[in-house]
Write a structure and sequence with these properties.
Mth169, Chain: A, 3-stranded antiparallel beta sheet, 33% strand
Length: 83
């Protein structure tokens, strides 16, 4: 079966996000003052083949833990769609 994984990698809430802070300040400089906080992360899509959804879930989890996310500073979540 073919799957599409949509992965979001974000800094952990306890970790400072200097990119997010810079964007928030930039928005304020543009007069957009309603934004209270900005967090910058990564969005990754993977196309993969697996025998089952459970196998695809395991593949994506391993990819995130071993390469796509720095688990010391980041957390990840993903969804799988059958293509």
């Amino acid at each position: 079966m073919k799957f599409l994984a949509e992965i979001n990698v974000m800094p952990q809430k306890e970790i400072l996000d200097p990119q997010g802070k810079a964007v928030r300040i930039g928005l304020q400089n543009l007069g957009i003052n309603q934004v209270a906080d900005v967090r910058i992360g990564k969005h990754i899509t993977l196309s993969l083949e697996a025998a089952s959804e459970a196998e695809a879930n395991e593949i994506v989890t391993n990819a995130c833990k071993k390469l796509l996310a720095n688990l010391i500073m980041e957390e990840f979540e993903f969804s799988l769609t059958v293509v």
